[in-house]
Automatic annotation (TrEMBL):
<protein>
    <submittedName>
        <fullName>ABC transporter substrate-binding protein</fullName>
    </submittedName>
</protein>
<feature type="domain" description="Solute-binding protein family 3/N-terminal">
    <location>
        <begin position="35"/>
        <end position="255"/>
    </location>
</feature>
<feature type="signal peptide">
    <location>
        <begin position="1"/>
        <end position="22"/>
    </location>
</feature>
<dbReference type="InterPro" id="IPR001638">
    <property type="entry name" value="Solute-binding_3/MltF_N"/>
</dbReference>
<dbReference type="Pfam" id="PF00497">
    <property type="entry name" value="SBP_bac_3"/>
</dbReference>
<keyword id="KW-0732">Signal</keyword>
Amino acid sequence: MRSTLSKFVAVVTAGAATLALAACGSGDAGASGQKLRVGTLTDAPPSIYLENGTFTGYDNELLRDIAKREGFEVEFVGTEFAGLLAAVATNKFDIGSSTISTTEARKKTVAFSNGYSTGFTTILTRKGASLKDVGAFAGKRLGVVQASVQDDFASGKVPGANVVRFPDYNAGFAQLKAGSLDGWVVPKDIGQKYIDQNPDVPLEFGYTVETKDTPSAFAVRKDNKELLKKLNDGLAKAVADGTVARLHAQFFKTEPLPKELEKGGPGLPVQNAGV
């Protein structure tokens, strides 16, 4: 009887704790002093990555700055990109921070802050492969991070390619290095960082396309309008006083800063679907 009663108490206590945790992560996420859970990646420098046990990169340092301005705290949690937006939509994470391109399809799942960067999608290849246009990849093995914009690009704009999906960037880079992939589709800044850090790996940029029409932004639940407002207000202040320009220069050594994000610039407004 005592054992049965103990199990009952344990179940009730665990259930109460679960309800309390769910309540903390919903509704008023972004209230002053609250700690918010942020889903991010560990292996995509210079934008989002783990260094000496600390989550950093352009996206995450900018989010820290916004949180400080707006009076809330952030707790970063590493995750895979494929499930990130669903995790934000279902309240596992309050914010998604992962150079998330603001496509129309993704706006059906989450709401986005205004944009904080633009960039280029590129196909990395082995040096001397002579794969400089999308048509050259017909019948070739083309790697992507699952559910990324690069996945959409490879699936829809590279005819005849054999698209191979990976859970993260490290896995794809390892396969490209080993010669198991003919091309690896990544944001150009991430590709450049890998080349800089691995000069012994003979890689080069193949086909490259600009992605300015879908700027990167932080993701939040559609009903969390308070947090969305805080993110946009903090981002606007960071653009106005030059913080965005400073962080961009710190993490992106060769990529130009969009004029809209220069000190005092108008920013990159994102129009959310149904928000």
